[in-house]
User: What shape does this take?
Amino acid sequence: MSYQFDFLAVARETPELAAGLARTVELTAVACVAGLLIGIIGAACRAWQIRPFNTLFAVYVEMFRNTPFLVQLFFLFFGLPTIGIEIAPDSAAMLAMVINLGAYAVEIIRSGIEATPKGQIEAAQALALKRWQIFLHVVLRPALLRVWPAMTSQVVIVMLGSAVCAQISTEELSYAASLIQSRNFRAFETYFVTAGLYLALALLLRQTLLRGGGRLLKRGRP
Amino acid sequence: MNDFTLGDILHALLGGLQWTAILSLTAFVLGSCGGLIILALRLAHRPVLVWLAKTFIEVFQGTPLLMQLFIVFFGLSLGGVEIPPWLAAALGLTLYTSAYLAEIWRGCVNAIPNAQWEGSAALALNRYQQMRHVILPQALRMAIAPTVGFLVQVVKGTSVASIIGFVELTKTGGMLANATFEPFLIYGLVAAGYFLLCYPLSLYSRHLERTLHVAR
Assistant: This one.
């Protein structure tokens, strides 16, 4: 019954863990930027009912928010090659994360855009701002500021969800963990330490996004 | 050579879907009980209990579900007892669900105006009575829509249990894809299966949000 914990066996594999961590950060960064872009475009189409894109985005959002990330990943990685589209593990993981985060971002940003008071837009029109100026400064920026906490949470959720990417052999943090535990037979210790790393990354990511995003969106405002 | 008819595939997938539903329900029901306990700790007037609840929530919301399942799976086997994947999956998902539900419900309790606490205190209700008769009934109304919404996350979360070897919809799909060499079709059907479970729940949650007049 007595089990001797051996966390040193995990500490010896620090380079492996660091490499995995770096890949996870990289994937998350790309997903964050691209997902945000999809979110802004999709939300604008949805909010102003630009046909036919509003319907297309609605279908996209419902499809990807109501199926598991793991299945989306498998579909991209295993399914697409059968219809002639070969895709590398890294690209599949990245694509899946971008598409998944994008679907949530559309809904989150749309709720922000729809909360814009009508008077704000009318005032901007009265000041003879151009349409794109109104969208950028009067609608989008305040909308993003409004929903930034929700957006941050979603990015963190997608980052944590990326742990399943090891299943298609993307060499991110959880891949490093399974590699290490197959070498040192210390599954519990390895996954415990890895979970700790994910936790630290999640806290850091949340703080960075909340602070950085808030500052960026508020810049030059009273 | 492909010996599987579409009927065979659908039959197998439906079997998997059933296990996905069972695991989701188990995690949701047990997770609700766990969530209530964490919520009680979180709202307690003892700093130690509050810290405990906060840490629990932070840890389970800040680590991947996959890591949680691995830790439960390998952690429980440390004593030399082999535990079956379904038990590890149910336990892991229950803990995960408790953390999220506790946090969702805490938000609802916090959204109750302070005057409700003061008013009920003025009526000489003690803390338990305030909770039981004044705060919780109102918070519950607010909590229904986001709780149903979170059920969608639980259903999707069960797919991760396939990785520790629990044979539900995703795992069944994986085995079928290997046997039939038709991953495009199989994973498409698997996704459709999840959609069938999740979409009605999403719609219902949105409907509740509108009818109960609760702004997020």
In short: Residues 65 and 96 of chain B are 7 Å apart (CA to CA). Chain B touches chain A at residues 58-59, 61-68, 70-71, 74-75, 78-80, 152, 156-160, 162-163, 170, 173-174, 177, 181-184, 186-188, 190-191, 194-195, 198-199, 202, 216 (CB under 8 Å). The mean pLDDT of chain B is 92.
